[in-house]
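A brief tutorial aside. Many learners find it easier to grasp structure tokens once they have seen a single protein encoded end to end. The record that follows does exactly this for Putative secreted protein. Read the sequence first, then the structure, and try to relate runs of similar tokens to stretches of the chain.
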Amino acid sequence: NISNMLLVLFAVVLLLPAFQAEGERFRGRPFPDPCYSTLFGGMDMTCTFHGHHGFKPNLETSCHFTCNGGGKYPLPSGVCEKGRLKCDADSIKKLKDWKKDLERRKKMICA
């Protein structure tokens, strides 16, 4: 019935921004986060190069990541401090360089 659909739409329109704002406040960083989007792209390509399909969504405290189906790989040198990803300007640059190198390798392989 149309009134039920309108009620649901109204509730979603009111509640969704509240949940989004809470999530952004919890993260403490603007979205999208350039550190993690670059990191996830590099992790996914690394896993694909090694014959895996994607990666597990959690980073281990040793700054390694695990691909679905096995395989444990380190993050680029200098992006971690005390076992955690730093996400400062220098780390973001290193992650972008790492991802760019992986993209270059992918083009060479697929060409």
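Self-check: Helices lie at 2-27, 34-49, 89-110. If you spotted this yourself, you are ready for the next section.
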